[in-house]
Design a protein that fits this description.
This protein folds into three domains: 61-175, Beta-Lactamase; 194-337, GAF domain (Beta-Lactamase, 2-Layer Sandwich), CATH 3.30.450; 349-497, 2-Layer Sandwich (Alpha-Beta Plaits), CATH 3.30.70.270. It has a six-stranded antiparallel sheet with strand order 1-3-2-6-5-4, with helices on both faces. It contains 13 helices and 19 strands. It is globular and about 75 Å long. It has helices spanning 20-41, 61-73, 99-115, 149-175, 194-209, 248-252, 264-268, 308-338, 349-357, 374-381, 383-400, 424-440, 471-484; strands spanning 2-6, 78-82, 89-93, 118-122, 126-132, 137-143, 213-218, 225-230, 242-243, 259-261, 282-289, 292-300, 364-371, 406-411, 414-420, 444-445, 448-449, 454-461, 490-492. By secondary structure, it is of the alpha+beta class.
Length: 498
């Protein structure tokens, strides 16, 4: 028999036989009181939970399902998840797993949740793998064959992604408002986001060494490496700078020890533009989560001027912080996926709406863009060609807009471009640029050239009249006029759409 659901373990209370008579009398009296109360009120009594109750909440069924899938996918007899505000979730074969093994698995998951690290325990017949991020913990129990190191590494990465997804989708329910009970001593408390953890690491390393510092992190989706934080006395223009894999920083993130570089080019793989120091020395310390390299801590300056005790302290700081960087990176990746269209990688409708809702400065404009004759492309060349065409259009949008603009896919072949601090005239120029790029770009599918055009509606505020909330309807009406006029054209919102 398999179980998959919420399980709690409570200590029983045992009473001496000499007290049994008194307890029976008390229970009978309570039952009589309940019966009398129901009869007098004419309706059944209901238990009311006090407003201050902190009883664990029920876990979403989707979480239980994912834990069960994790167990089945790895051929494991049991798996579990623990959180701070819900009862533990366990999945497994109840008739074949000894209770003490389940207790051990649960205990290791709680330990991983508290210290934010990975744990692997082995004995003669079982292996337990646990991963935590200070908010949630998960563990998988194997019996019999000892899994390989590669399989364990894959499982830990899968569990990290799962915890990140849970924190995004069910964060308030699973983790509540409680703070981590243990934070590495070299970091200030209450650091949950990736920028906060990285900035705290930089500043702490600066306090220890007195030198400028920086943190590089890897994107778990693209594996691209870039600088995400610098200390207060470092050059902030480094933030966002991409690091090459063959550089000292790139190699350190996959190494077991620090790597020293004598110049900026050796350190990053290339010389950052507009840097004040063109031949800067530095040492890159690895940030790791078990066997996985997640980034590097960079200490600028000559390595030989740091004494051994400072180097050891920096290394331990990097060791303590690596799992937290990994957990925060997983959460950010999950949030990013939740905010983006799965096919094109562009922001989705909810991201667009948030950007427009947060706008407070005029002028601004909206472009509604629709690919002409898209159904014909799908019908003639197939859905794969249609998907490739939408990705091609997304690349054109990225090249045509500024970093603060938002080009979003809101469904099918429908796109919207939000242009803050843009006048009506400038919006028309952007729209014509996009239309010309779509019409003028050679696009082929399976060796056949596919002609592409698009229609665009433009609405601006305050020059065009509509409030920000009405820009999309006005631009959409202008788009319909462009389509009716034959397509491959830009139309501006008219007075009646203001």
């Amino acid at each position: 028999m398999e179980f998959c659901g919420t399980t709690s373990i409570r200590k029983g209370q045992w009473f001496e036989s000499k007290d049994m008579t008194a307890w029976i009398a008390l229970i009978v009296g309570l039952l009589v009181g309940v019966v009398v109360g129901v009869g007098l009120s004419g309706r059944p009594l209901r238990r009311r939970r006090s407003s201050g109750s902190r009883s664990p909440q029920a876990t979403p069924s989707s979480v239980e399902h994912v834990i069960d899938l994790l167990r089945r996918a790895n051929g494991a007899p049991a798996a579990c998840l623990v959180g701070r505000s819900t009862e533990p979730v366990m999945s497994g074969r109840a008739d074949s797993v000894e209770p003490q093994l389940l207790q051990r698995m649960m205990g290791l998951a709680k330990l991983a949740m508290e210290d934010g690290r990975e744990h692997v325990t082995r004995d003669e017949a079982t292996v337990v793998v646990a991963v935590g991020d200070h908010k949630l913990g998960a563990a998988v129990l194997w019996e019999g064959t000892d899994p390989s190191a590669d399989r364990i590494a894959d499982l830990k990465a899968e569990m990290r992604r799962m915890l990140g997804e849970f924190r995004v989708d069910h964060g308030p329910l699973l983790i509540g408002a409680s703070a981590p009970s243990e934070i590495p001593v070299d970091l200030p408390p209450r650091l949950d986001t990736l920028p906060a953890i990285a900035s705290g690491l930089c500043d702490r390393a600066h306090i220890i060494t007195g030198r400028p510092t920086a943190v590089m992190a890897r994107d778990p989706e693209t594996q691209g490496a870039s600088i995400i934080a610098v200390s207060t006395n470092a050059d902030r223009r480094l933030i966002g700078f991409s690091v090459t894999p063959e550089s000292a920083v790139g190699r350190a993130s996959m190494a077991d020890g620090a790597i020293v570089a004598g110049t900026s080019e050796e350190l990053f793989g290339k010389v950052p533009a507009n840097r004040r120091l063109k031949a800067e020395q530095g040492t890159a310390y690895p940030l790791r989560d078990g066997r996985d390299g997640v980034g590097a801590l960079i200490i600028f300056g000559p390595d030989d001027e740091l004494d051994a005790s400072l180097r050891e302290r920096i290394m331990w700081l990097a060791v303590d912080t690596g799992p937290r960087i990994a957990a925060a990176t997983a959460v950010r990746a999950a949030e990013d996926r939740a905010n983006r269209d799965g096919l094109t990688g562009l922001p989705n409708r909810s991201t667009l709406e948030r950007a427009m809702a947060n706008a407070s400065v005029d002028p601004c404009a909206v472009l509604c863009v629709n690919l002409d004759h898209f159904k014909g492309i799908n019908d003639k060349y197939g859905p794969a060609a249609g998907d490739a065409t939408l990705k091609h259009l997304a690349r054109i949008f990225r090249a045509a807009v500024r970093p603060d603009d938002v080009a979003a896919r809101i469904g099918g072949e429908e796109f919207v471009v939000w242009l803050p601090e843009t006048t009506a005239g400038a919006a028309q120029v952007v729209a014509e640029r996009i239309r010309g790029a779509v019409d003028g770009t050679d696009w082929e599918w399976a060796g056949t050239e596919v002609p592409l055009t698009c229609s665009i509606g433009v609405a601006a505020s305050p020059e065009g009249g509509p409030e920000i909330a009405n820009l999309m309807p006005a631009a959409d009406a202008a788009l319909h006029r462009a389509k009716k006029a034959g397509g491959n054209r830009v139309e501006a919102a008219q007075g009646e759409e203001k």
